[in-house]
Design goal:
Length: about 180
């Protein structure tokens, strides 16, 4: 019986985990924390470099297109979107600006909203307007529907004198297209 007891005690000693010194545990914990911080720093730098590259290259941000064909007939009208919708601004009979007209060369309606940038003769930006404007009490514009062809959208007060200023407009689909919400 004593033989089996001594065998049992030897086996228990063998199975008992060895005592790891406290200093070893502290070094291991510190090493893991250091490696985690280094990995987080590398990921942060990679995200920063990618963001700088996207901003400086203009990747996926240029949505403007050349001037609207036939713009000389209605004044210095410009711009459209990747959807093909153009925005035309014309003065009212009393000289105030602007009567808003959309031109959709496509064969289906689309809902858009547009930025109008007003420039002086020296191409200095004077103002930027949102068409249609943000309704009172709302956080964003809902846009307006642009059926195929020309469609008038009424009057919107825009600080623009077509006799000595010009503008560009960029129209984008009003639906969320995967970018940050406006």
């Amino acid at each position: 019986m004593s033989n089996s007891r001594s065998t049992l005690e030897r086996e228990l000693e063998r199975l008992t985990p060895s005592r790891i010194p406290f200093e070893q545990l502290v070094r291991r914990r510190d090493r893991k924390r250091r490696n985690q911080r280094i990995a987080a720093g590398v990921v942060g730098i990679a995200v920063f470099v990618a963001a700088v590259w996207v901003v400086t290259s203009g990747w996926a941000f240029d949505r403007s297109t050349p001037a609207v064909p036939g713009g000389s007939e209605t004044g210095p009208m410009q711009s459209s979107t990747n959807e093909g919708v153009a925005l035309l601004l014309e003065p009212r009979s009393d000289g105030r600006c602007c009567l808003v007209t959309s031109v959709n060369p496509g064969d289906s309606s689309t809902i858009v909203w547009c930025f109008v940038s007003v420039f002086n003769e020296a191409d200095r930006l004077l103002s930027t307007q949102l068409v249609p404007p943000i309704p009172p009490g709302h956080r964003r514009t809902s846009g307006f529907e642009t059926p195929p062809g020309r469609q008038g959208h009424g009057f919107q007060e825009i600080p623009l004198d077509l006799s000595d200023q010009h503008y560009t407009s960029t129209c984008v689909p009003a639906a969320w297209q995967g970018s940050a919400p406006f």
